[in-house]
Amino acid sequence: MMVGTDVAMYRFVEDETEREILTAADVRGFFVEPSIGESEIITAVGSSLRPERVPVLFEDVEMQVRDVRGREIGGYYIGRVEVTDLRDSVSVPGGTDLALSFFGFGSPYPYAGEIWQTWAQGPPAESGMWKNLPPEAHDSWLHVVQMAWFRTGHQAKRYGDTTTCDIAGADLADIAGFYCELGEAVNGPGGYFGSNLSALDDCLINSGARRESPFRLVWRDFETSRRAIGDEELDDVISVLRKYGIEIEYPPSG
């Protein structure tokens, strides 16, 4: 679908020159289950390009994700893209549906395409939208959060001066959910504060940790999250937080 009246959600450009190759309202077949492996045929729905002949090959291609205002909010470096077939679009009047080969390249976040559709309308206005998704989609949400965070000019650090950050341990089904919750607790709706141990370490360093504790973390229903996520992963997270002097409070349940 189109994200706006005149704005297509996906824009393919030459990475070095930014020359536009084509736009598309949707890209199907790119976001795949990790177990599937390589992507095969990808469909660019409602494309602006109608080549005179196929196949036609493009090199050094980046696929950008845009919001309703045409601003770039994400992007994937694809490299080689070949248009292998085309037909009139059944979804976008006057558009063309292109069959594309990315030569096996795909994104192992199967829910990311749907999540990008939501983010294209604007970043989350309130925290916790990711909790409406099934647990298996949390990795995809975190992926979109991380990419959008840096593509829109943010850095790996804490913004604002909140001294206490709350996370709801009862809502955490996996480690991706923890990072979604932590990012919003620290940086607000749709906020990012790490996606793995190394990234968390970077965010804490850039937030002035070690010189002074940047915030106190109130971890509610901690034991519930420990049972869901597992001892090893949570112990590693706690170790990184404590290394930077983060005080963690575990209020009793009930």
Could you write a compact summary of the structure shown?
With 254 residues, the chain is an alpha+beta fold. It is built from 6 helices and 10 strands; from the N terminus they run E-E-E-E-E-E-E-H-H-E-H-H-E-H-H-E.
What do you see in this structure?
The chain is of the alpha+beta class. Helix content is 26%, strand content 26%. It has helices spanning 112-120, 138-151, 175-187, 197-206, 222-229, 231-243; strands spanning 10-14, 20-24, 26-28, 41-47, 56-66, 72-88, 96-101, 164-168, 216-220, 247-249. The strands form two sheets. A seven-stranded antiparallel beta sheet has the order 2-1-5-6-7-4-3. Helix 2 runs parallel beside helix 3 (175-187) and helix 4 packs parallel to helix 6. Residues 1-5 have low confidence and may be disordered.
Question: What brief labels describe this structure?
Answer:
254 residues, alpha+beta, three-stranded parallel β-sheet, Barstar family protein, Barstar-like_sf, Barstar
Strand percentage lies at 25-35%
Global structural class: alpha+beta
How many helices? The count is: 6
Overall pLDDT, averaged? Answer: 93
